[in-house]
Amino acid sequence: MTAKSPREEILRLFHKTAGTFVSGEEISLALGVSRTAVWKQIGLLRELGYVIEAVSSRGYRLVSTPDTLIPAEIKSGLDTGIIGSEILYFDELDSTNARARQIGDAGGADGTLVIADRQTAGKGRMGRQWVSPPGVNLYASVLLRPPIPPWQAPQLTFLSAVAVARAIEEISGVRPRVKWPNDVLLDGKKVAGLLNEMNAETEGIRYVILGIGVNLNMGAHQFPADLRYPATSLRLHTGGPVSRLAFVQSLLRHLDALYQKCLSEGFSPVIAAWEGFFDLVGKPVEVDFQDRVVRGVVEGLDDIGALLLRLADGTLERVLAGDVRP
Ligand code: BTN
Question: Measuring CA to CA, which of 100, 273, 284, 317 is 20 to 30 A from 6?
Answer without folding.
Answer: 100
